[in-house]
User: Fold this.
Amino acid sequence: MIIYNESSSKFLNHIYENKIGYVLKENVLAKLNKVVSGSELRSWENSLPQMAKVLRDADLKEDTHVLLECKLPSSEKRIDFFVVGQDEKGKNNALIIELKQWQKAKVSEGDGIIRTFLGGRERETVHPAYQASSYKRYLQNFNESLYSDSSAIQLHSCAYLHNYIMASIGEPLLDKRYRNYLQESPLYFQFGDRELAKNIRKLVSNGNGREIAETIENGKIRPSKKLVETVGSLLKGNEEFVLLDEQKVAYEKVVSKYNQFKTQTDQKHVIIIKGGPGTGKSVIGLNLMSYMLNSNAIVEYITPNQAFREVLRKKLIGTSGHVEVRDLFKGSASYVQAPENYFDVLICDEAHRLKEQGHMKKKIEGENQVTQIIRSARISVFFVDDFQKISKKDIGSVKEVEKEAARFGADIHTIELESQYRCSGSGNYISWLESILNNNEDTFTLEGDFDYKIVSNPQELKEEIVDKRGGRLLAGYAWEWNKDLVNGKLPNDVIIEEHNFALPWNEPNRIDWAIHPECAEQIGCIHTVQGLEMDYVGVIIGKDLGYDEETKQLIVRRDEFKDKGAKPAKPKKGQADPLVELVRNTYKTLMTRGMKGCYVYCCDKGLERYIKDRSGKGEYISEI
Assistant:
């Protein structure tokens, strides 16, 4: 979708008449049903006049076309500025120009990452050249008019930092680590407007941009053959993605419904795949995505949890460099405006984390994210575990999916996964854990290869899990989270004074926390680790969960639960407290992230004794 598509002469008139902000605001409301924020309006009014000066100097024919706020297919991202037309030889060209109001930046760790001042403080973000290049590749991978053999449109990209004065020596944005992105998408600084005008003139000075703009806007949205082949090659031969037993059954069920759909396209199908932690839901989902792509289906893979989405991408891509694959993975808020049956197949992992609406999204009356996914696809696949809902905002459940599927008249198919592939394949450990957290009297003796121990000191938990085994520490949300840096460092939030223990929560913007070496000295929260797996985890159970040794009951302490966004309202007298289920689900999720082992420290000593007695092992690791 293109919010603004006008000739360059009309664009210049809108600038000279001081109307550009108003026109864009009205177009966004009409096309996206979205009210423009004051900061976005100011951004247009600051940056677009700078581009008007450049276009004026480029001396373009009036039918060169300017496209503003071009929405990337099935994404919330929008390209700032597009100029399209023909060069002197009659070749069709389109130039993406990413606009930035930055004034300074710093080199940062990570591929294509830079530090600059955003949103009131210094933050890590992507390098402008990376951003422009990634938008170009995205279009080349998903817009058929730009990747098909018959396409005659050459796509180019750059970035213009019109407020940024380039340093004469050692400019951070031109550091050698960004060389590859800069070669693909050059940067133009404050006094580089003439060079930018020269480049624009070279590409589009001959005009005739209307047809090019229409071709781009009307291009069919489906993955390119190259991208389809890339996904298949990444899965093929990778033992981590081999389907076993009931995983194969679930996979073939979805495939058969898809093949049936191809001859009965008027019937929706909703497939619910139920499975607890470690039953291989993501393995099935990734194989399904590969099959659907090879079948020429329009398909996307949805994960509500951003951290899980990023690790899933990296697990699939590895070191292959196929970064374009990441664009097949979407957040759950991406389908508010999607037309009915736009997609052939949508695969939703971790569906229990679906919400009423996305962050900062305008809610459509009568719809939630389950509704939007089912509406948008002919076949929707939901991987659900009702016992991993950990927030009052989580509305995804088997019951909710069934209700919304019935609303659309969809055929509903349910598959249940039982075999355990995490926790060293120890279904015994999972059953024991459920027995503990549900406070029932079932007797389970821990057996098998899973390395489970209780420790009585958080310092030793760190030594055993992080220092010796390269694992990660996790904790329940029983400590406040101060996300502002103190003297450039994360503050210590998880503090256990009696053991002189203090570490920060995980870095908020580090979505690859679970696999980044710099994050070993941070503690992961439930929102960061849900869906992920590590070899070893150490779990700190805060005082939000305890055990009353007189009544012999687990207790949940409301005052010790610090996640305000997830905390349900206090129930009326005589009603069950929904927080109890959320806290139990949280610790079950945390304690099932380990592939090989999980060590636990309890802040509540009564709970420590209770779990030790129920473990059947009767052992501690000795205190330091």
Remarks:
- Confidence is low (pLDDT under 50) at residues 617-624.
